């Protein structure tokens, strides 16, 4: 085996459980991934994966050994890459950032514009993704996450708490009464998550607080839930920084839902914390978001 891309392919197939995920990770089409894997198996004279009845590719003993070796090589390469990048003192170059859809839609972009004005040489590549991307594998340089990082090699800080509340359009509330003193939701039309959406605390709270029959509209996008509430479809449970900054909806209840207090963190890999453009992002964007703590924590409405 004299081609690093062959090792990458085996590792990508094992990680993704199939050729579709592997081809996406490597930026090649499915047929190319299939052809390369078959050619590698033929040249080595050994099968590297067994395809299970559910379509998942399971590594054989030989495939697992190759994938483990490829992962060790990748770790060394990424460590070297981070070491070099960590000493980069230029306020220019590419900076890959990952953020949730709601943060990017509501508040983040204005702070990115401030970064652009201060340091026009920094090119931000924003990945809007609710998944937790790997900073160790350089899937992103900086992450804005709703949870405290657990990986010991990561470095960052909490920017704010994140409060949630119920919102509706004024027209909806004009035609329907507000919440009862007990806060019961039944009797209201609700906007919720589709069943395939990942389990999050807000969705679980809504499921406990109202019957499934009350949910008249479902979507896996919080931004779309906001838009649906704005049109008068029903009540939506939203982070306060999203709902309070939108003039088309108002809070149904005065106080945020106490059980749904979350967090917002800014995180990078420890090897990159001294990189000039990473520091600039922390200073301008991180501090800019932290200055809106009252909005994140539901103490100030910008309506």
TrEMBL record:
Keywords: DNA-binding, Transcription, Transcription regulation
The keyword tRNA-binding is assigned to this record: no
Tagged with keyword RNA-binding: no
Top-level taxon in the UniProt lineage: Bacteria
An example Gene Ontology biological process: DNA-templated transcription
Stored InterPro entries: LysR-type_TF_proteobact-type, LysR_HTH_N, LysR_subst-bd, WH-like_DNA-bd_sf, WH_DNA-bd_sf
Sequence ranges assigned to domain HTH lysR-type in this UniProt record: 1-60
GO MF annotations, alphabetized: DNA-binding transcription factor activity; sequence-specific DNA binding
Family (UniProt): Belongs to the LysR transcriptional regulatory family.
PANTHER family in alphabetical order: HTH-TYPE TRANSCRIPTIONAL REGULATOR, TRANSCRIPTIONAL REGULATORY PROTEIN
Name assigned to this protein: LysR family transcriptional regulator
Protein source organism: Caballeronia humi
